[in-house]
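Example 3.
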Amino acid sequence: MPGSIPLDAARAALAAPAIALAATFVAFGAACAAAGIGLGWTLACGLLVFGMPGQLVLLQAGGGLSAVPAALFANSRFLPMAIAIAPLFGPWRARTLLAAPFIAVTPWAAGLRSLPGLAVEQRLPWFVGFGLVCFAASAAGMVAGHALGGMLEGGAQAALVFVNPLYFAALIALDLRWPKPRAAALCGMAAALPCLWLPPGVALLAAGLLGGSVAFWITRRG
Amino acid sequence: MSLLLLAGGGLALRLCGLVLARGLSAQHPLIAWATAVSQATLAAFVLFAFLAPSGALAAVPLFARAGGVALALLVLWLAKGRLLPALAAGALPVWWWG
């Protein structure tokens, strides 16, 4: 039944994806509180930007205008992610643009796995439903983290930050049985090693472009 | 002001991507390339977080981070792909040695 699709998406999100996101945003909320930044800015930054690397660049620069290009560069992966997921929403219509605010790693990774199994008309409602739950989990995490503030230190804060990459590592591991994601993951990791010596904002984009292009070339030839 | 610029820029990147893909099928080379780049970027993000993290995670010894990843993948395999037990197990060494 089409009406239950956003609820199905919400149920799918209200498990590991929401927990991994909330954990990361608890750490972000605590970092904002420790920097003396108010809850309003914290929530606005988390929900309007919704891309942790760029959020962290802006936070570390104290919210200064000069940090915007670097922060935007750190979030430039949004462009290929949006190109990659767009065909999964079916024939292009103006309402496809409603998906835009939710194109971030967690909903994107879930969308790539789940959307092909749904009827075309169900895909956009599913993605928006999933994204809204991700927004809610992130907001709850930021409120909790901001309230905890300085109480959240050392191992607890590190473990919360660690949950997010761990979640993506698990998704990558589950996808290794498919040739194209396996090639992209292995090439991305191989390209990341020499990029470790580049500035942090550039390193991620360089590794993704290099590794992804090599993986694309390998799978096209095969 | 900087927050609005960053948010607007991010939204513009997402909208550009959706518009650029207009009329292209999932098999189109541009879509296949963008998917490979996105997946490679995600893999690189994970590797950077484990090998060269910043912030609170940087204070955690490498063996604890590596142990967390290994434990998470082991539990993921034992639990037949269930994510939550894997995340809980993987976070434990980082919390303990952090």
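Chain A has two domains: 2-175, 177-222. Residues 2-175 of chain A form one domain.
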